[in-house]
Amino acid sequence: MTVRVGVLGATGAVGQRCIQLLDGHPEFELAAVTASEDSAGLPYSEAAKWRVDSPIPSEAADLTVRATDPDEMPDDVDLVFSSLPSGVAADVEPDFAEAGYVLSSNSSNDRLADDVPLVIPEINPGHLDLLEVQRDERGWDGAVVKNPNCSTITMVPTLAALDQFGLERVQVSTLQAVSGAGYSGVSSMEIIDNVIPHIGGEEEKMETESRKLLGTFDGAELAHHDADVSASCNRVPTIDGHLENVWAETRDDVTEAEVEDAFRAVESLDLPSSPDPLVEVFEDPSRPQPRLDRTLGGGMTIAAGGVQTTPAGIQYNTLAHNTIRGAAGAAVLNGELLQSEGWL
Amino acid sequence: MTVRVGVLGATGAVGQRCIQLLDGHPEFELAAVTASEDSAGLPYSEAAKWRVDSPIPSEAADLTVRATDPDEMPDDVDLVFSSLPSGVAADVEPDFAEAGYVLSSNSSNDRLADDVPLVIPEINPGHLDLLEVQRDERGWDGAVVKNPNCSTITMVPTLAALDQFGLERVQVSTLQAVSGAGYSGVSSMEIIDNVIPHIGGEEEKMETESRKLLGTFDGAELAHHDADVSASCNRVPTIDGHLENVWAETRDDVTEAEVEDAFRAVESLDLPSSPDPLVEVFEDPSRPQPRLDRTLGGGMTIAAGGVQTTPAGIQYNTLAHNTIRGAAGAAVLNGELLQSEGWL
Amino acid sequence: MTVRVGVLGATGAVGQRCIQLLDGHPEFELAAVTASEDSAGLPYSEAAKWRVDSPIPSEAADLTVRATDPDEMPDDVDLVFSSLPSGVAADVEPDFAEAGYVLSSNSSNDRLADDVPLVIPEINPGHLDLLEVQRDERGWDGAVVKNPNCSTITMVPTLAALDQFGLERVQVSTLQAVSGAGYSGVSSMEIIDNVIPHIGGEEEKMETESRKLLGTFDGAELAHHDADVSASCNRVPTIDGHLENVWAETRDDVTEAEVEDAFRAVESLDLPSSPDPLVEVFEDPSRPQPRLDRTLGGGMTIAAGGVQTTPAGIQYNTLAHNTIRGAAGAAVLNGELLQSEGWL
Amino acid sequence: MTVRVGVLGATGAVGQRCIQLLDGHPEFELAAVTASEDSAGLPYSEAAKWRVDSPIPSEAADLTVRATDPDEMPDDVDLVFSSLPSGVAADVEPDFAEAGYVLSSNSSNDRLADDVPLVIPEINPGHLDLLEVQRDERGWDGAVVKNPNCSTITMVPTLAALDQFGLERVQVSTLQAVSGAGYSGVSSMEIIDNVIPHIGGEEEKMETESRKLLGTFDGAELAHHDADVSASCNRVPTIDGHLENVWAETRDDVTEAEVEDAFRAVESLDLPSSPDPLVEVFEDPSRPQPRLDRTLGGGMTIAAGGVQTTPAGIQYNTLAHNTIRGAAGAAVLNGELLQSEGWL
């Protein structure tokens, strides 16, 4: 049975990726797209300056863009993906939830709220049950689920794998692609032949979101993990694919082989967008690389490599496609989990 | 009084930078250039495919390239800069030293040898006295002094500044420019829209060389520093300028202001290539950036920024021009120290 | 019925693309791969440093690399793709043809020889009959067919479309991707933040090959087209996809609409690798663009746009994927034509 | 005697270059900077996000930004450089001229107006006398002089050199740097690993401005040159430096040597910013290249190379620094000409 879905903020960079991923999706059928007032009433093909590297799907091209307002959403839509700017999302998402829509949102607002599940389906699917708390507290018929920031998603699956050894301290340096800032986020004069060693708010997101994702939900409250996490974030001249250098200290001593085995043992789910394996481990220390490895598993695989033990803990590199696994694909996968767990 | 100097391996990327830096040097006069057998006998302008972004200096252009052999070096040359491939350097540098030449070498061979001083003049000038041990042990009239690897030089001046607080542990992620691998070292197909998270041997160089540079020389033996150093090295699509994300743990607690003051307090030397200030500290957390800041102080300044204290220690970024401060300029500056200390 | 095929020079950049394109091919089955002496005897997965952005096909990975010698080729191989360096190809291709193998070669040697068909299947399939002349003159049981240079292929389909209006003069400026020079052909220090306005031999190839492709074969001799062709070739920092600015003067006056219609009217063939449409015409003058449009039709489409009439003739832009349509895919498509026309 | 100067639109990319070029200028002293209302009242160092690769000049840093209004300009300013957006400039420049200020403007408005001189000092200094017509017609005490578009300036000096042979037809393909579109003009997602074969309005500017620059002024009217000019404009991933492939047809037959001699014979002027030689001719066909050659003559040299004769006329490449020779430096040089010719 097909779920009819809508996409809020469908003309932006993440919105376009979302439209691309929904094309031919086995469970979801695109029924509505929204954008800012200026675009309302236009055909999607005209409103979106399509920049993804595959042609615009024909069923999306012909949809009429709607205003981003629950009153404009067709009643038979059961699931709504949101990739709105966080300021807009903070205003609008509660309205949709109140109107009964279930939202899988990539927007950064409210990710840390006590009653909002922040979910990577293969890692912490149980956190989805926070929705009961959410509905109780907010009196919503609908619901809001969040996926984490792209740089957080890239490292958390491997950190989760290491937590069996007692994760105590994490340091991570990121080399992030320009698409993470949106289509106009990084000008070419800023980044050609250059690196920018700062991304506003990114370090804090990585530090706080990862502790929430690795935390424990007892059915009533979510206790965040107590590992120290320290991030240093850099923008580099790549189009897609965030690469991260990680050091992780664990309570137990572990060998490189144990680490690689733990990575490989992270299980994928039986959902359309969950890749198998979830974590691809490279023996070649020069891999993974963004351009060569970002599209593994349709862009949903977490790639890891360069595992070694050092005085500063386990050291390794990890890579994920930031606008697929790190954004649009993350939201779609959360939608699949919502469907599979009976929340729609 | 002018010192006549020679350059070994003058046609390579570092050799060309060296020729550029010697142009108009107040103390040194270029008297001889060497290269591989194929180039011997050719005018330098023909042997070197000149690729530096300033025109080839006329006094260098007309020199006849010599074979890299002490018998071919003019007797009145007192100081020889070496930027040979390390394999060649290991064979040839001892011959030059035995023949009485004093070498300031950028080649990586023998940097860790007990009787070879590894020197950044503003940081550990006293290590130069290891040359007495060297001459005793090897029976040379000449001498060999080394400068460290480009990625090591970039971080050591700031680490040295922190050692007053008891440096215990260092972790560093590097974002290194392609020029560090030489002119043909990184193909464009490898690096456009990409990052390579591995540089062979680089991590070990950073770990071992920095401990030697920060070590203590008692007049007889050099004790390496005992801080743990762990490096993760990446190649990024920038032409020049290595940027590094550093975490440094110290025994004492320190504030961000104390760290910045310590950086600013590192003293430059009264030598032509030593910039003042040695360390330029940026308040803007998005600086330093390779393209904007690599040519500060003629490429000899160490730039730092983004200082913050974290659970994992002091966190900051540092940047230096890898083929100037990190290679050719480092060798020239060591030459200036040798002259000033009376070793020529 | 499946044709068993071999690939000469299978470890290089074009060879790897060829292996990628043969994976899952409906008519061809990969039976043998060759490389230089050093690699002979190794599994292909080990000999080839695989750098294409999809995983190495498993049937190729396990093949043992052979020496590039007809005596080493299995007898049941009927079709051989060659992407050898042209110097090697000049030596070896005649040996394979003499030994009875039919070669579809991407190597540049002999492209202009009187009895060697130079073929783009959708444009000049009739030139294939030159093989009768070739076999007569050389006494071969096998045969050699060539595809043109990547920059030539990119523009010739549209020029062929304009020849109905009397093509008299062509000027073309190219913006060529680095992959056209092979994996190590362009160093990153040469091309980051740069353009190289010269590619050795490329201008002449475009001028002579295009006249041969547009020429007329009367069953005995091939008369080259008499249009003047003048090319100016540039290397730019793109990975794949050659973009070309073309001016074409024709005897007849034509409108922009007639030009676009002529482009759209070029027919594709009923062969697995021939895309439909062959020429995709963009109305948006900022398209085609290499990164967005190079993979149209699996990399086999010729994209065109920016059509306008000027005092200097018809002006337009054209784009093709240089290592697919311009090299490996061109050879595979020629193989499909050879099979369909009964030459195997 | 020093001329006090003002800069309108001083915080933009061209404005910053202008401030950089005025630092230490032998004739001009920076007295006032203007920007949009938002910045008025701020110190320049705060209003301008300084992004040029040399530190902000101290005398500029401390100036208070003024509104862009002649009433706000100090009376003792005699020369005003304008790098305003063309829409703003069209409104404001006449007010400044009416108020008595002499403007050297880089803005594109009014470049083709009959009574506005469009000048490259070394090429058509006599066009400056159009100012008499301008003052007569407009009743201004001040004046407005324009420099051409960056892509036009790059090719016109060499075209002027060829006009002695009877210039009849010009075709040019450009490979333009991102800085030509201003700091935020080209997003990194548009241009990394890509080319954009269209720049809005640029082709027409090259076609019309070059005919005006090469035209003849008889003291009353300016007759534009009648050569056909056809341009095809591309944006490529370089920071600075426009490279252009030119074909020029002349009435007379010429040899490559005659062309190179004609280029070398273009005379520079005895003005501070006019380089000697004006045109640097390279024998190596792979030069000039943007990264290696854009800073020749402080960024004011026109570089040329690859000269050859073809059936389509003389073919060559030319390069200039687009924000120096092509914008800020062009305006400064026009200011020097205005001063030297007694217009201030």
UniProtKB/TrEMBL annotation, chains A, B, C, D:
<feature type="active site" description="Proton acceptor">
    <location>
        <position position="242"/>
    </location>
</feature>
<dbReference type="GO" id="GO:0009088">
    <property type="term" value="P:threonine biosynthetic process"/>
</dbReference>
<dbReference type="InterPro" id="IPR036291">
    <property type="entry name" value="NAD(P)-bd_dom_sf"/>
</dbReference>
<keyword id="KW-0560">Oxidoreductase</keyword>
<feature type="active site" description="Acyl-thioester intermediate">
    <location>
        <position position="150"/>
    </location>
</feature>
<protein>
    <submittedName>
        <fullName>Aspartate-semialdehyde dehydrogenase</fullName>
        <ecNumber>1.2.1.11</ecNumber>
    </submittedName>
</protein>
<dbReference type="GO" id="GO:0004073">
    <property type="term" value="F:aspartate-semialdehyde dehydrogenase activity"/>
</dbReference>
<comment type="similarity">
    <text>Belongs to the aspartate-semialdehyde dehydrogenase family.</text>
</comment>
<dbReference type="Pfam" id="PF01118">
    <property type="entry name" value="Semialdhyde_dh"/>
</dbReference>
<dbReference type="GO" id="GO:0009086">
    <property type="term" value="P:methionine biosynthetic process"/>
</dbReference>
<dbReference type="InterPro" id="IPR012280">
    <property type="entry name" value="Semialdhyde_DH_dimer_dom"/>
</dbReference>
<dbReference type="InterPro" id="IPR000534">
    <property type="entry name" value="Semialdehyde_DH_NAD-bd"/>
</dbReference>
<keyword id="KW-0521">NADP</keyword>
<feature type="domain" description="Semialdehyde dehydrogenase NAD-binding">
    <location>
        <begin position="4"/>
        <end position="131"/>
    </location>
</feature>
<dbReference type="Pfam" id="PF02774">
    <property type="entry name" value="Semialdhyde_dhC"/>
</dbReference>
<dbReference type="InterPro" id="IPR051823">
    <property type="entry name" value="ASADH-related"/>
</dbReference>
<dbReference type="InterPro" id="IPR005676">
    <property type="entry name" value="Asp_semi-ald_DH_pep-lack"/>
</dbReference>
